[in-house]
Amino acid sequence: MHLAYPAVLAVLLFCTGLYGVLARRNAILVLMSVELMLNAVNLNLVAFDVWLRDALHGGQALTLFTIAIAAAEIGIGLAIVLAVYRNRGSSDIDSLRDTAETDDAETLPDEVDADAVRDTTADQATAPAGKAKKAEATA
Amino acid sequence: MILSATAGHPGFLSPTGVEIAFLLVGLATFGAAVVTVTTKQLVHAALWLVVALGGIAVEYLLLTAEFIAWVQVLIYVGSVVVLLLFGLMLTRAPIGRSPDADSGNRWMALGASVPAAGALVWVVVDAFRTTWIDLDGPAQGSTKASGEFLFRNWVLPFEALSVLLLAALVGAIVLSRKDRQDRKDRKDRKDRPDRSDGRTAGQVRPDTRARRTGPDRTERPAADREDNS
């Protein structure tokens, strides 16, 4: 068999998984796309192992290990997604913005106090707005 | 490689039967994968993932890696997809079409993945243009061969992997288990109409914290009295 067939199929599957990881909104669909990427890597490993006729069969052994690690990964990932769903009421990745760096939410409280003492009311107006946005995101 | 020497470089235009089968199954697999990442129905995505993973198992069979093919069927099709379906059910995924399955950066994702696919296909085809896999002879991935290389050369990683699986099991249980503090909070908040569970202790709004310290203050002396007596 021509080696290009499994290699090209693996490339296409990997890029499909890449698209899914970047474009999907639901966390479980992102996990599915990660599984597609892992399977593309497995296909490459098996194809090159069969091509090289390795005495140790490192490609196939690594494929088995990757499958086991992917099973563990999906278990942990689903546990995390379920915990997020229990806390937030949705498994929507785009709404998890607690650690996003917005301009007004990342000022420390000490700096806010110092600025409030030193400056005029302009800073006082923006800083609580950032805090309120942050609280809204965590609620 | 030996096949190419004997048959004199078969080339792309005279494919063998195995290559035709690989191509057809590969097309089906790729189509199922594309539907998996583009469909709007979440449960259908999981079911198309079954088709894609099963197609990859058939490709393993065509590459004479039998044992990995059956492991793929057992673990991926058998357990991972079932886990994903359970996850979809537990997060109350809508059954019908959900219009917000794709996020806003869909076109950026398309712009990232399509050029990547094009460049990689170009590189791979150019690199392996004159390379053939010799599939003749004894199967390289039969169960006997797999057992021999796995338990002769790869025993230590195999055992380490069992430790990792145990750690993953314990970790999944710890992550998905509600601890007692959380349950007590939920019991406290159950009578409130606007309860929104899961807010951790550090993020509680000031008014709810004040309300919760009320009964605690009355309980705490009682507990101290029990300790003293």
Automatic annotation (TrEMBL), chain A:
It is a multi-pass membrane protein. One of its GO terms (biological process) is ATP synthesis coupled electron transport. Keywords: Cell membrane, Membrane, NAD, Quinone, Translocase, Transmembrane, Transmembrane helix, Transport. Residues 101-114 have a biased composition (Acidic residues). Its main location: membrane. It is an enzyme of class 7 (translocase). It is found in: Cell membrane; Membrane. Its EC number is 7.1.1.-. Gene3D superfamilies: 1.10.287.3510. It catalyses: a quinone + NADH + 5 H(+)(in) = a quinol + NAD(+) + 4 H(+)(out). GO terms for cellular component: NADH dehydrogenase complex; plasma membrane. One of its GO terms (molecular function) is quinone binding. Residues 93-139 are annotated as: Disordered. The chain crosses the membrane at residues 61-85. NDH-1 is composed of 14 different subunits. Subunits NuoA, H, J, K, L, M, N constitute the membrane sector of the complex. NDH-1 shuttles electrons from NADH, via FMN and iron-sulfur (Fe-S) centers, to quinones in the respiratory chain. The immediate electron acceptor for the enzyme in this species is believed to be a menaquinone. Couples the redox reaction to proton translocation (for every two electrons transferred, four hydrogen ions are translocated across the cytoplasmic membrane), and thus conserves the redox energy in a proton gradient. Belongs to the complex I subunit 4L family. NCBIfam families: PRK05715.1-2. This is NADH-quinone oxidoreductase subunit K. It comes from Streptomyces pratensis (strain ATCC 33331 / IAF-45CD). The lineage of its organism: Bacteria, Bacillati, Actinomycetota, Actinomycetes, Kitasatosporales. The gene is nuoK.
